[in-house]
Structure formats: structure tokens, C-alpha cells
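Dear colleague,

As promised, here are the two records you asked about, laid out in our usual form so they can be pasted straight into your sheet.

NAME FIELD: protein one
SEQUENCE, THEN STRUCTURE:
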Amino acid sequence: MKKIFCILAVVFAAGTVVFAATYTVGAGKTYSTIKGLTSTKTLSPGDIVEIYPGTYNEGVYWPSANKGTVSSPIIVRGMGLIKPVIDGTGLSLTGAPPSGTDSLFMVYSENIVFENLEFKNGGVSDGGSAIRLQGGSNNITVRNCKISHCGIGISSSTAAVGTLIVENTEIANCLWEPTDGSTHWGHNVYLQSDSIFRYCYIHDSGKGNNFKSRGHYTELWYNYIADANSIEVDLVESTNTTAANSNAVLVGNIIIKRNAAPKSGYAGNDVQFIMFGRDGGEGGAFARNGTMYLLNNTIIAGMAANKFLDANSSAKYLCSNNIFYGSNTMTTGFTNAITGSNNWIPSGAAAPSGFSGTLQGTDPSFINAVSRDYHLTAASAVINKGINNPSYLDGSGASHSGVPAYEYLAPVKSVARNSDGQLDLGAFEYGSGGGGGGGTVDPFANVKTYPNPFRLSISADKMIKLNNIPAGASMDIFDINGSKIRSLKEGNAGISSMILWDGKNEGGDSVPSGTYMYTLLDGAGNKKKGKIALLK
């Protein structure tokens, strides 16, 4: 069997031709394990690694010799609609590469994209991460992944360079429980380098924080960050943050503090909510020499004890177009470092002295705060109350527009933000829909699939049915390898609001027993994915 089954010519701007290869990993593929590939092949610009569905019980070292480019990165891609799982159950994630790894993916490579993969159960007892960026790792992207129950979700060292980009990814329930009696926290995200996170769902940190970074510069756009055992967003100080413009920008996020004390048996923090600097206390070894730009976020306290903003005296906040709801404590101390305009705060809260144009009330009129639907009703006093030209400075001091163009859409997606020429406050523009968990109204919320499992031999009409389908929606059906076998339309059997499938492919042949995935798509681009178990 050939080790390279596809070769592509990649042509760079200078005219140099580089041959890119595609490698396959999985049962019956060229490589049965990911390590089997990475330990024997050096990846080059444009190379693609296809990892097929299955469970991979291994820690993988991605060496520095793997060098993609900005224009032609190395792509490591999970294939099919069911994400391949990198599972650390039973592994001891210790030691240094190449003989050992301290994380499920230990990355020293440059310009590499990891997408459509699931990581779990790695490093809970020894502090390993799902993905750890080490010295020399440069411009790493993580996209459409799921990370849970690891010691740390994603981490980076001070030697990691470039900017980590994480998109459309869920990170949850990460917890470090050392077996040697030492005290450690573990966080869902813990970085020492610059980063950009977009359209992510980061929630339920097992012990520590949902998002912690000591990097010089951080961007958080349109994320749903909720229910940490300790702090939700913790951007603190280090050697990286003493330089000018050690800034952060948070735009269009939904940030929610849990309405409970720290979990029993674990240290936690039920007061601090968003921190900028201050990890070492005032007068610590390092400073946070920059500004956090909070623009059009919806920030929800779970308890009256929660304090929205904290900082040390060298750090500053600029807050515009936000909704702060659920606590009367904006901050304690350092109020002169907090400026901004056109924010909504509770009527019992004292606005920082640097605020102007502040709106106050008892309720910003969410559709349903109890179910966490923070879209606005028509009665909301925050509609059209924002400034239209929010801006921020990046890590180099360059100015950019901070106008939100998108909104978070559950799960781990985005949707274009409505625009009527005047910004509303918060993460959602009025009229963009509704839905608990930070998503807009799901047009497929009431879809039912029956019978499921579908046993063809005992079905009277030999049809599996999906009802409550929006008008004009379509359905694509895929096999376990992600190959499309059938496309159907709403009303395909002459019954409106329904799709019927007879268990056959496009050629009219009956498909074998197994699990099939489907995707529903409406005219607005909304999608719903599901599974059908077909039995003969």
C-alpha cells in the first residue's frame, strides 16, 4: 500500500512548486495511529493528514520539523460527521518528546491547523493538556473541535510564538487532580501567548477558570463563556505584559457567572468575574500595562456577591455598549481605571466615575433570563442606545473598529448581526431571534425523527419520517465515512413540513444497516445535524 495516496502541487507566489501530500490515519488506512505518522514523516506546506473516525488512545508529539506556511498551512483534519476521538484514558502523560508527551497533542510545529477532532480524558492526574503549544510552535489554529475532561484544555508556554486561533470549539470540564497531594487548579484555557478565540463555547471549568491568559494580547469575539468554578475571564500579568499595549478586546461575548458557591471540595472564587491583571496582587513582580476593551458584551452575574470588574492600577478598562446584569457591584477599588460610555447597569449599582451615558434599571428586558435567552424584547430600554463607532487598540497599538458584525449562535456557530444603523447594547441586536444557551431561535427545534432506530422489516410504510421541517428546507444523508448518499427536500412525499426517507441511496439501492448522519439546512443557512440508526 502506498503511504501517500494523493499528491498536490502547491505553487507559492515566488513561483516555487512544492508537492503536498495527503496521509490517511485510521483502521484499514495507511497509518493505524497518529503517532505512526508523526514519528516517521516530516510534514511540509500544504500537506493534509486525514484522521478517520475511531478512538486513538495516544499522546502525540508534533515536532518542530513540521513547517507549514501562512499561505499553505499543514491541515490535520478529522474525517466524517463523527469526530475522531483522541482519548487519554489510562495514559501517563509525562516525559519529554520524542519518547514521551505531557499532553494529548504536544505541538512544536509551525502553521498547522487542527480541525474536527475530539479530545478527552487527558492529563487529569498529571496536569497534561488536550493541546499544548510549546517552544517554536507558531501560528496554530484549532477549529471545530471538542475538548473535555482534561487537566487543561488548551495551554501554551512562553516560548510559543505567533497567534493561536481557536474557532467554533467547545472546551469544558477540565480539571487537574494531582495524585501526589499537591495543589493545582487546571483551567479550560491557560495561555502564555497571544490568542484569538471566536464562536467558542467555554464552560464549566472543573476547578479553575474558564479562560486564563498571561499573553501580551488577547481577542475574544462572539463566544459563550459560562459557569466556571472560579473566574470566567482572567487576563493577568507576566513578563509578556509589562510592554506597552498589553491589551485585550472582548466583543459580542455572553459571559455568565454561575449562581452557586465553588464546588464542594475544590477551592474557587465566587466573587471575581472578569480580571485584568492583579493575579500577583497590587505591587506584584509584573504589571499589566494595557487596556481591556469591553464592547457590546452581555455580562450576567449569578449572585449579588459577584464583582464584575477587577484590575491592578497599571491596567485599564474601556467599556462601551455592554449590559451588566445580576449584581450591584461593578468593582471595588481602581475605579479611576474604568472608563467608557453607554453601558446598562442595575439601578442599585454605582457607576464607575469614568462612565458616561450610563443607563440604569431593574431589568434590561431579555426574552427569558431564567432560560438564558438574553436576546432583547421590543420593550427593552437598551435598543438603539449604543455608540456606533466603538474602537480598540491591538497589541501593537494600531486602532481598529470594534463594531460587532456577528453574534454567537449555539452551538459553537455564528450568525450575522442585524443592523438598522444604530447599535443596541449587549451581544444581541434586537430582532435577531431568541434561544436559550446564547443561541438564536432554532428553526429545527421541534423536528422529530421517527421511528429511530428504524427497523425496515417491521415498518408498515417502509419510511422514516422527520416532521416540523421548515418550508423549503433540505436534508443530506451521509454514511459513517462522511460520504453523501441521498439528498431530500421538505415535502418530498407530497406532505408539507415533512421529509420521508425510504432507506435508499440516490441510485435507488437499499443501504446496509448502520448509523447514518443527516444535516438539515434551511434557506437562511441554519443547520441541524442528527443520526438515524437503520436496521434491516
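NAME FIELD: protein two
SEQUENCE, THEN STRUCTURE:
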Amino acid sequence: MFHYGTNYWRPPNPPRNEHRLHLNKIKNELGFDLVYLRLLWNWHNRRPGEFLFDEVHEIFDICSEVGLSVMIQLNLESAPYWLETAHPESRYVNANGHAVELGAQEATPSGGHPGLCFHHTVVKQVAEQYTHQIVTEFVDRENLFGIDAWNEPHNEPAWCNNMWGNAGDKLYCYCEGSRQAFRNWLQNRYGTIDTFNDNWGRAYTEFEQVQPPVLGGTYADWLDWMRFWHDELQANMRWRVQTIKTSAPNMTVASHSGAVPPTIPRAGAMIHNFRFAEEVDMWGTSFAPQAFGWNLATCAQIIELTRSAARNKPFWISEMPGGAGNIRGFRASRIPRPKDYYKWNWLSAALGSTGTIHWCYLTERTGHEAGRFGMIRLDATHTERSREAARTCGLLKKYEDVLDSAKTSTQVAILYDPDNSSLLYGMELDDFLYGESHNGYYHSIWTADLCARYVTYDHLSDIREKVLIVPMAMTMPDRVADAIVDFVAAGGILIADALTGMFDERGWLRANLPAGKLAAASGILEGEMICSSPDNDLTIPTADGTIRDQTSSNLIPMDPIYHGPPITFSWPIQGTVPAHGYLVPLELNGARAIGHYDEMVLATHHNHGQGQVYYFGTYMGLALSKNMPDAHRLMSTILNEHTTPVVRGDRLRPRLIAGSERSLLAVFNDNLEHEVTEAIQLPNSYRSARDITDDTPLEMTDGSVTVTVAPDSATVLVLE
């Protein structure tokens, strides 16, 4: 079943006296089947041991009457004030040493944000009591669909709306509970203080002397600090799920990400979606293309990352915008257009999503979100968005037999690991470049009409795709390098950027690159790295670590080698691509040169075992993200040589949703200005094609169908 619904209630919106009006509208006018209710901890647990759920029961009763299922959203990031008053030591503390008092925030207008630190036993005990009370209160409700254990899991205070804060004000948690938990984690990881000192390069005599990092300049401590939080947040998710299932073993427990690294840089929020998804039955993502300015390629990338994290579990779009997103009072994202809902929903369905939930139904009333997000206005009148959402919902329901049986076939694997984001955070205070490198490569995959599966360092053994892309993997354990070599030797195609495995697992620079056995498999050794990009400028570091942008005109001009010189390719295309990020000369050790700058080799190809390695002496993903034409032509040629899409377009991007008895062809036009007409060759002997919106038949000739798609739009055909 393809579920379609909306986030409905985040108290105090909508008001209690309006529930019957709105819930009837959701079911009978929009045709949705599911609503989310966010149960804020401080709203329902205002005094110790006292729980108020009468309004929630009223909503359940009305939903049962009209035929709506309910997903409860557990929210522990809204702690009750009585608990803060009794235990002020449990407040989150940032890297600058400031404790955060509970308060109201745009996404938590009823207060209690950002919650209290779970490294304090009393917080966890009271939260467990509240969670248990929710489960026992509602487990017997026949229309309870499941429980969302954690809305947008991350290190919660990192997203506090602190417009005036610096980096230290947005990095958590440095309370005494978290500090001690970190020391315990280090001792479990390293065993002895001597082993720990060898890895960090320090001179401690006992673990009690160790503090989490607050200064830049070294990488070992930042890598371990963020690994610690990845482990701790996954453990917190596991605890939530176990608490729910202790009282309701058969309960469907879900969660969904609020950011999808590496596409959206969020290293400081300590997000590891693959780890979170391991713990739940169903995974999802928030999805706001209009807020971030995503093109269709990035939309597809977000969906494929979400499906990859789910690892064969059901996944869906958990928050698709109902209206404009908030920024500040006079600044907001654009309002989604009706055609966006058709386009976004069919893109997600084509890539395997099992449902869509909107954020949200009713326009918000207060704070930064006031007047935004809702598809229905406060006076309960429809918008053109709500009408289109209802129409699209009906079409998805009409063809859910196809959606239920379809499987997504992937041709390319992409290696992603949060350690690289963490390392970049230690370098740059954000992981933007790592995300851009991934975004660039994915754009080429999208235009080649291929589907991708992301794998982490923990999942290399199950790669089934022909091609593996390794973007900007600056830190890499030897075991990962060895696994990549095994993949190539068995017949895989590896595409890798410069400085693969530059730092070992400790965050220490390797003497020889590429890392480990990759050097022999690639047939090269890397030379000395040079910072080089087309937009490179003279910069002067200062004693406090800041960068001076204004420099003297008397300084020596920079050599062209630092300005992203052109890499001239002789194979598999003839063209030039400017170096981006770093320029690294490659010494041939069995490989053949395919790209040069003057006499310097900067791209190679090598056969290893039954497979092949393409190695670039720069960050090709960054060049792709800057839409360098020859970079995309190069990647397109390589991908076309080694993969075959299920269906292929020229200017249109078709995706086949193959059912058991009938199929759907979703065709996307990512040109923002021009209508495109194109013949799409189909892989099977379908006899007829009709547009699902009006049943208009389309002409088929020799197994191909001619499709016309408006600018920045989608057309969906049923094939029989």
C-alpha cells in the first residue's frame, strides 16, 4: 500500500475545537489515509508522574470515525520544565561552556527545547517512563499505524535557532555527563592509556585527564569525538525502540532524517543515518527541495541516499513541504508549485518510496514558521497546493499495485562514510566540500539514467553493482582499501579521486598514496599535493587561525599551477577539466596516463585482476559540481562504457516502474525553460501507453514511445 498523509497536530496547532473539521477534510476532501501526531514531552508530562492524553484520545476517536490511521511521533526533545528545575546539571552545554536553558523554538513552540542531555541517568529514566506511558495508553487503538521514535535524529542542540552564535555555540554536548561518557568510550576503544596516547599523539597518564576537543589543529580528537557521538546517538535510538517494543513487541517503529549527509553538510549535528536506520522497522527523510534550491538530480540523490540507508526496509518521504519554508520573518523559501507535488511524488515513487507525509496540513500560527508550511490556510480553505496533493494522492493510490511490486535496480555504488565529514569539520569547520564532491558525481549518474546505492565502510562486502565511485575519501582504514581492491580484482570498475586514504583511521597522514593495496591496484604512486582551484586566491593565515581575505598588492603573484590548471584528457574523451581542490601528480607504476598538465600526469587508467581503475589527480567530483562540461562528458563516457540503464533518454530522464502485470514510465524534464519531446525506447514489448492524468493514448513505434514533457515537470505513463 502506498501511504499518503500529513503531519496534523503539534500542540497547540490546530486548536482542540477544530479537530473534527480538519480531520474530516483530510480524509474526505484530500483523500489521505494517515496523520502524524507529535506528542511533545513537556506538553503531556507537566508534573512528575502526571500524564495528560485526553486530547490525543479525542483525535484518535475522530480519526477512527472518518477512517484515518495515526502515527504517533515520540518527541523527547521537549523536556518538562519541572525536570530541568530539579536537575539543572542535565542541561546541554556547548563548546564555549554555556548551558542551554529550555525554551520555545520554531519547531517546538510549546517549549522545552532542546531537551536535556541523556548522559544524565535521571533524564533517561523519566523519558523512559513517559515513552512507556504513551505505548501502554495507545497500543490497543486499532487505527494506530506505528510510532515514530525520533523526529529528525541528530545531536539536538546543534540546530537551536542561535542566529548570533559562533561555531562553538553550536557544538554539543560538553556537560560533565557527556565528558565522562566520552572518556569511558575512549577507554573501551583503546584499552590502555599508552595505546590511546599512541593514537592521539598525546602524553596523558590517565583517561580522567582527557577532555573533548574545543580547539582546531589536530584530527585524531575530532574524529573520535564525532565517532563517539555517532555511537551514542545510535544507542539512544536503539533504547527508544527497545522501550517501545518492550510494551508492544509488534509495533511498527519508524524514524526519519532531517538532513541527508553528505548532500546536506551537517557534520556538527553528528548525523549517521545508516546507523539510525539499523534500529527501526521503517526509515524516511524530510524532503524540502524548494527550501534548499535542489534540482531534480539532487532530489533523486536525497531519495537514493534514504533508500540506501534503509537497506531493504520500507522507506518513505516523511516530511514533504505543504507550503513555504521558514528562514526568518521577512525571508522564506519559495512556495511549492502544484506541479512540484506531482514531480516530487512520482520521482520518489520511481525510486522505491512507499509513501508521502506532508509537513504540514495547517499553516503554523506562531514564531518563524507562522504563515508557512501548511497546505491548508488557517481559515480551513484549500490552496492550489492542497488540491494538487489530493489529485496526486489519488493517482498514486490508483496505481499502487504497480508501486507495491516494483523493485529499484541499481547500477552504481557510491562510497560514503561520516569519518570524511568529521575530518573535514576538523579542517574547515564544515563538510561542504565533501558534500559537493558527492553531489557532482551523482549529477553524472542522474544524467546517465542510472540508479545508485550508497554504501559505507561497514557495507563494502555486499556491493553488487558494476561500478564503485569513491569521492574525496580522505580518511580510510586499511581494511576498506583492501576491500575496494578485492572488488576491482573480481571485475569491478573503480572511479577514485586524488588523495584516497590520505589519512589513516587515526587521522594521521600516510607516507604513501593511494592507501594500502590501492596503490598497486591503481598502478600509481601519488606525488606531493598542491592546493589548486580555479578560484584560488592568495590567503594569509593569522595567529588566531582566521584567514585574511585582503592581501597586499606587493605579494608575489601565484603560479598558474595553483589556479586549477586544465587537465588535458586524451582518453576516453579528448577534452580539458580544470583541477579542483587539490592537484596531485601521479607517478606511473603500471597504469597508463590519460590526462596531463604539461608533463605532469594527472589522470590514469589501469587494469587490475578482472577489473579496472580510473584515478584522477584532483577532485573530479568538485569539477562536476561546478558543471564543467568536459568533466560531465568524461564521466558520461565512462559510465556508458560499463553500465546499462533500464531505460535511457537524451534530454529527458525516464525511470521505469516495472509491475507484475502493468508498469509505469515516469519521465522527467529537468530543463527549466523548454518543453522537450523525445522517443523513449522501452525494454519490454508493451502494447500500449497512456498518460495517467487523462488516459490520453500515446503512439508507440517499434517498442518506443514518444513523450512530451513541459519544462521542470514530469509525465507519467501506464504501460500495458
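A couple of things worth noting about protein two: Residues 44 and 52 are 5 Å apart (CA to CA). The longest strand covers residues 600-608.

Best,
R.
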